Amino acid sequence: MKRRDYLAGVGAVGAAGLAGCTGLIETRSVVTAPPVLEDRPDAVYFPTHVEGMSMAGMGKSEGGEYAFGLMYSYPHRFWNVNGRSVSRTDVEDGDDVHLMATVWDPETGTVLPEAGVSVEISRDGDLVSQEVIYPMLSQPMGFHYGANFGLDGDGEYTVTVSVGGVSTRRTGAFEGRFADPASADLAFDYARSARDEIAYENTPDRAGSAAAVDPMEMEMMPDSVAPAEGDLPGDVLGTTTTGDAVFVVGRLPSPPAGVDAGEDASYLYASARTPYNRMVIPAMAVEATLARDGEAVFEGGLVRTLDPEIGYHYGAAVPGVESGDELALRVPTPPQVARHEGYETAFLEMPPAEVTL
């Protein structure tokens, strides 16, 4: 996208994005987040505060296989996940912005998790910062990549967003795509005064409640919302939850292209999403046992998979699925993604879940 085309659309995008966070009425030159809640639920909860964001740039990789969007907000705390261990990253002296990158397929608008994203920030040809940024979940954005960065004052920066290639299995029309690394240079005009005009709201009356911030509405960028049950292909067979994650289980009569299977195999998939906002939950290990009349007909892992019809999901070829079958799901490794506030206590302790198909 040419820069003049992007600038023509920034106003509309910014207004639409802020419209998705109702009640963001406060702007301030110094933002100090409220303390983390002492008694947080082991589930999704409404955070102590809500921040808006602004667009920084958009573009495509050479050849057009990847589209990139870059946004920024106030620097803020977030939580990293390593196995089942969770550690908080606080704002450090010198942090100026929280940069957020989204990578998607420009043909289908599918957001691409597990792409290995890094950011290089330069100004007038000099390197300012370089970092592999974290895969993340936030309530307004869903899945994205982000980190806090320090800058070198007001001015125009070049942000090179790079992907290493999608590591997830790709099926259907995605088979063979998104394997190669690519990058795009995005211009970022930064002014501290503009950052300080980004909307911000403390939410003491709602903090800790079983709810989530509404998703942002940005017309020029896709979000990472999982398909509604009625939009999933094949037969939707049931729904179950664990660790506050929702799994919608479905079946295709045959596996999609890209899945090795016998001639008579069906394809069993589980589409994992957050409650309230239906955001995709990626990067976990999922195992399944499919039982019929008390006997296991399949037992094994559900592979992390990206498909243009199902979206990001966990799936495997199985020897048929019949009405009345019992499916047990286990999550030995929870989602290995960092979390913004409100998600950091959810999707961690995930006991076995069962559903009758």
What does the secondary structure layout of this molecule look like, with pairings?
Layout: H1 3-19, E1 49-51, E2 54-60, E3 67-73, E4 78-82, E5 85-89, E6 97-104, E7 117-123, E8 126-132, E9 134-138, E10 142-149, E11 155-163, E12 169-170, E13 182-190, H2 192-195, E14 200-202, E15 235-242, E16 245-252, E17 266-273, E18 285-292, E19 295-307, E20 311-318, E21 326-333, E22 338-339, E23 353-356
Parallel strand pairs: 9-22, 12-19
Antiparallel strand pairs: 1-14, 2-3, 3-6, 4-5, 6-10, 7-8, 7-11, 9-10, 11-13, 15-16, 16-17, 17-20, 18-19, 18-21, 19-20, 21-23
CATH superfamily of the largest domain, by name, is Periplasmic metal-binding protein Tp34-type
CATH architecture term of the largest domain: Sandwich
Oligomeric state of shown chains: single chain
The biggest beta sheet is recorded as:
9 strands, mixed
Strand content: 35-45%
Q: Decide which structural class fits the backbone.
A: mainly beta
Q: How many DSSP H or I helices?
A: 2
Which series of helices and strands comes N to C?
A: HEEEEEEEEEEEEEHEEEEEEEEEE
CATH classification class of the largest domain = Mainly Beta
What CATH calls the topology of the largest domain is Immunoglobulin-like
- What is the total tally of β strands? 23
Average pLDDT confidence is 91
| Overall form | globular
Helix content: under 10%
The rounded Rg comes to 21 Å
